[in-house]
Design a protein that fits this description.
The protein is of the alpha+beta class and about 150 residues long. It is about 40% helix and about 25% strand.
């Protein structure tokens, strides 16, 4: 029974967040159910050109090829002045200290923030490092968030 209650909470939180953009509660509920039923949300990372994050992504790409232990986590940043729905993506390799790699894109963070605020941590896993095909091209990363 607790699992059903949790699922209903997740769907309603997500539907309410979607409804702010869609303005159609019925359509918002349908989309929320489809996301929750899939139990996964695929996303890219934002903010990868700030600071030394490109260097970190290059190292992370190398570690991923070497099959190193890469742990990822989401951290709510509700005190972020630019975006109160901000969610940081943190990464640690082989038990090292966590590094702030970037953010969940704002549109997805707006959907996930209420869920994280009410229900806590959501698991996230690195899928791949992308980009960097030319000498000056930036790297990025793709993740899957488990709902």
């Amino acid at each position: 029974m607790k699992k059903i209650t949790r699922i209903r909470k997740e769907v309603m939180l997500l539907a309410n967040a979607l409804n702010k953009k869609i303005k159609d509660l019925s359509e918002s509920l349908k989309r929320a159910w489809s996301i929750i039923k899939a139990k996964k949300l695929y996303t890219k990372i934002s903010g990868v050109t700030f600071g030394s994050r490109q260097t970190a992504l290059k190292r992370l790409e190398k570690y991923a090829r070497e099959k190193a232990e890469i742990k990822t986590s989401l951290v709510r940043e509700s005190d972020n002045k630019a975006d109160p729905s901000a969610i940081k993506i943190m990464v640690a390799v082989n038990g090292s200290a966590e590094y702030h790699l970037g953010y969940v894109p704002a549109d997805i963070a707006a959907l996930l923030a209420p869920i994280m605020d009410k229900l806590g941590q959501l698991p996230i896993h690195l899928l791949s490092i992308v980009g960097g095909y030319a000498e000056r091209a930036t790297l990025g990363a793709r993740f899957v968030i488990h709902i």
